[in-house]
Amino acid sequence: VNTVTHLPAPEFRAGGTDLTERRRSGVSTGPVVDIGHRPELSRLQRADDGGLRIGALVTLAQVAADAEVRAGYPGLAAAAGGLATPQIRRVATVGGSLLQRNRCWYYRNPHTDCVKKTGTHCPARDGNHLYHVVFDLGPCVAPHPSTVGAALLAHDATVKVVGTGEGATVRRLPVAEVFGDGRDGRHDHTLAPDDLLVGVRLPAPAAGERAAYFRAISRAYAEWPLVEAVVRLVVDDGVVSLAAVAVGGVAPVPLRLPAVEAALRGRPVTAEVLDAAAGHAADGATPLPMTGYKVPLLTGTVRHTLGLAAGLSDG
Ligand SMILES: Cc1cc2nc3c(=O)[nH]c(=O)nc-3n(C[C@H](O)[C@H](O)[C@H](O)COP(=O)(O)OP(=O)(O)OC[C@H]3O[C@@H](n4cnc5c(N)ncnc54)[C@H](O)[C@@H]3O)c2cc1C
User: Fold this and answer.
1) How far away, in angstroms, is 18 Cα from ligand 1 center?
2) Gyration radius (Cα) of the chain, Å
3) 3-state class of 287 per DSSP?
4) pTM attached to this predicted model
5) How far apart are the first and last CA of the chain?
6) Backbone angles phi, psi at 250, to 5 degrees
7) pLDDT attached to residue 68
């Protein structure tokens, strides 16, 4: 028997803040390839088209503090600076934050099988799913954990991926394709095990953009949110010309909310318009027995974040 062919595919380690915990608990047992010290993946620089390139190994603290990110991509800066703890943000990388594995307690328990391991059944579905999805899109009901994923979705970012296996290829894909539509359920992202995420590219900033990030959370610190929202708005002569709204914590993938965006575009920035737009946040929601509470939480979180971005004093 050639035992080498039976080894699980290697897993890259960037900052290691997610991977190390799965190694410690025994959920990740295969070989590890350390990519943490590659200067070519650690750059944050302006692109020729006025956009921004962010290397996969740039840390979340760097993203949150960078003057160009804060000026041109305030939603991303706020999201990167608002998650986890200062210690985690100092080590965690952009690539790792997109490709981190989900937080479901059944998935993280080395003694429990599930659709994201070798099983065909999601134990959270008929077990404890208090923190899980309200958009039941596939066999796994764990919410996607990536805050930066939601922010990059709102910014229409693309990623560059290099296959490191045989016949290595370079691909560019929209960040939405990194997550897929949640219907598969077996993975937290669509990249192959030997795909190296090289970096992220953001389009040129939208002039006059206002943005906000807000998370509804069961404790104030060091926890994934129950629901989170990133809102980007451009307002010309009092009328919304650009609206991008993305949410996390509610679906197996970060989600854009097109019905909310459509209810904002071309309309004046008033409390009534924001109320009406937020009223579409949970369109199509299919909550689980224990996650019904997230439906009003989602609507409220989106409404509050819209208010923050619009600069209305009551949020
Ligand atoms: C207390 C606490 C609270 C947290 N709260 C939040 C939160 O609210 N929102 C949130 O989004 N995150 C949160 N996190 C998670 C944290 O953001 C992630 O652990 C971190 O972003 C992962 O980045 P990393 O560089 O450490 O990844 P690693 O642990 O090194 O890797 C994570 C995964 O990504 C893969 N990977 C990493 N880089 C690449 C690459 N370049 N190419 C291909 N694959 C790669 C690895 O193989 C691994 O599977 C929290 C963490 C803690 C401990």
Assistant:
1) 5
2) 19
3) coil
4) 0.96
5) 64
6) -120, -10
7) 95
Structure token digits, residue 103: 């937080």
Residue 157 has which token pair? 């970012």
Alpha carbons within 13 A on the beta-carbon side of 258? 1
Which residue is closest in CA terms to ligand 1's atom 28? 16
Alpha carbons 76 and 312: distance in angstroms, whole number: 21
CA-based nearest residue to 197, from 216, 171, 229: 171
In this predicted model, what pLDDT tens digit does every residue of 269-302 receive, in sequence order? 999 999 999 999 999 999 999 999 999 999 999 9
Q: What is the pLDDT of residues 13-53, one digit of tens each?
A: 999 999 999 999 999 999 999 999 899 999 999 999 999 99
227 C-beta closer than 6 A to ligand 1: no
Angle subtended at Cα 105 by Cα 103 and Cα 107, rounded to the nearest 5 degrees: 75
Name the token pair of 216. 């509804």
Looking at per-residue confidence, does 311 or 168 come out higher? 311
Report yes or no: 143 and 242 within 8 Å, Cβ to Cβ: no
